[in-house]
Amino acid sequence: MTESGPGATAISAPAPAYRFTGREDDEPLYLYYYRARYYHTDLQRFISEDPLRFSSVSLNAYVYVDNRPLRATDPLGLTQFDIDTAERIVRETYKHLKFPSKIEASLPADGPYLGEYLWLIDKMTLNEKYLKDLDDAAADELLDTMLHEVVHANDSVLKQIRDGFRRHPDVDKRAEELADPIRNRFQKERKPKSKSSG
């Protein structure tokens, strides 16, 4: 805001510290900091390769969520190939089930929740730890968690609200029943194991 006239004072609001996808803006350098790499706003691309480069379907190591920003987010600047693979297999196998319209991995890795379904906005939120290089047990947990949230998405709103305040072993059991027939396929199609995991 600027006032004119004698003795006027120019006041300007500072630029927001957080921008698109909630990342910090390092304005003098035109960079967004994504924890694992930097995004250059003028170039409109990451300026360093994805640390999980070989986990993406794309051969381009500089992409963001495999060029699907309306369907996925990646708050750490890492790819989510295991999440995408699980989603694809679940959608192909269980076409009769409603799948949330948006998925993101933004729950804190050290937090108590592996996933949640937000029925008001039809969004599944998964734990950030699923963006990492997963061993087989963690990949199975991801599949179970995704199907747990899909079961919630297919429940009535009243049951979803009730389940938000109590344990719900019926949902766990149904998710496991859905996961078991596709578990081997998911393990075969998910990203290759890193050399360090043997």
Tell me the number of helical segments per DSSP (H or I, 4 or more residues long).
5
Largest sheet: 4 strands, antiparallel
The CATH architecture of one domain would be: 2-Layer Sandwich
* Subunit arrangement of the protein: single chain
Number of E-type strands: 8
- Element pattern in H and E: EEEEEHEEEHHHH
Briefly, what CATH class of one domain? Answer: Alpha Beta
Rg, Å, rounded: 20 Å
Question: What structural class is derived from the secondary structure elements?
Answer: alpha/beta
Structure characterization notes:
The protein has 198 residues and is α/β, with parallel strands linked by helices. The chain has a domain at 80-191: Zincin-like, CATH 3.30.2010. It has 5 helices and 8 strands; from the N terminus they run E-E-E-E-E-H-E-E-E-H-H-H-H. The protein has helices spanning 81-93, 136-154, 157-163, 169-179, 183-189; strands spanning 24-26, 31-33, 38-40, 45-46, 72-73, 102-107, 115-118, 123-127. A 4-stranded antiparallel β-sheet has the order 1-2-3-4, with no helix packed on it. A hairpin with a 4-residue loop joins strand 2 and strand 3 (38-40). It is globular and about 65 Å long. It starts with 23 loop residues before the first strand and ends in a 9-residue tail after the last helix. 28% of the residues are buried.
